[in-house]
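Thread: RNA polymerase sigma-54 factor, structure

OP (GT): Posting the sequence first so everyone is looking at the same thing. Length is 433 residues per the record. Can we get the structure tokens written out before standup tomorrow? I want them in the notebook alongside the other entries.
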Amino acid sequence: MKSRSRISVQQTQRLTLTTKLAASIRLLRADAAGLSRYLEEQAAENPQLLLSRPPPADWLPRWRAAFAPAGELPETAALAPSLVSHALALVDTLRLSPREARIAEALVEGLEPSGWLGPPLSAIARQAGASLAEIESLLSRLQARAEPTGLFARNLSECLRLQAEDAGELDPPMVAVLDRLDLVARGEIDRIARDSGFDADAIRLRIGRLRRYDPKPGAGFHPLAAPLREPDLVAEKREGVWVVQLNRSALPTLAVAPGRGGGRAEARALIRLVEGRNATLLSVAQEILARQHPALELGPGALLPMTMAEVAEALGLHESTVSRVVAGTAVDTPRGTWWLRALFTRPARDGGPAAGALRDRLARLVAEEDPAAPLTDEALALALAEGGAPLARRTVAKYRAMLGLPPAHRRRLRAARPTARVASGDDRGQKLA
């Protein structure tokens, strides 16, 4: 039997990720800060690429607007409120005097993404022009009403102590564990038992409970929080039309070095890629904000249903391109700094309002309720239905959980909880039960 050689012709398609395509994708996904770092790296490798950062523009972060008087709070179009807007809503429920409100704003400004206070109380007191006693008194009130529990803690021990107290588990063995977290981290249970005089099994039980607590209660707000850095885009209303432009103070200026030398073609190619990225970003952002202009006018409660596929079809782009462009991109608006991705929201039901708008309305209903008589999920569903957004009770419960809001019975217990606390007096916040 003889073997025969046979020649055949086949046609196949294959996408090759070239260096240029890879760079283009990377630029599309980069925010202003990431793009600046990437360009600095490229300029360090290619002397023909010149970078110059423009002088600071007149753009001022509207973060200070987060501390506006009551009724003028900025809004975010995120699925959940940012940490600062959440904390300011809490401040509003305390019905503070103007002086107390200024002190509370200084405490909110001191919050870190973890939900803890960063500066010591003495520094916050100096900033607010208040006494340490005033700061400690108002801090106790904020900690007593904060949700999730543990916000405004000054360190890990205080954060866990607040949660143990809220759960009704702050008994003497738990206090002994919280006072010796360094030994807990090293697993020295027998030493904790010996030093505290409690049984080792009791100590193990408290440590097990401790592991259910959240050491960083503010971290859940981080993915959707308004960024503190300069945004990539600035949106303004000019002659009745919303216009989006690049925030040039956040981007370096590119140029090719004069003269001759290797690398000039690569520098020009990179500049073209950046210009293409900027043009795509502007067109996508303009289309998004043109569709969501009611939210720019009235706040996130006026968000309209919108998908990336719809924006991509309107611009003649692929949906993945829109997804890459909006990833991590922030836009500064008169209502605060918003994530572009957060403006995409589907309807809660076919033909109904946007789910993001309903969550915003739900958060406002809870923020404005009587703390002594909080609204149940059924009552919240009825209130939303009166506003033209009928929802099932289970949907309201789901949205409430997404917003990090406890059920009515827990909100009632929190409102009834006494606010007096005994502080140890040192700025690190070690407290006694």
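GT: Both are above now. Quick notes for whoever picks this up: The first strand starts at residue 49 and ends at 52. Residues 62-222 form one domain.
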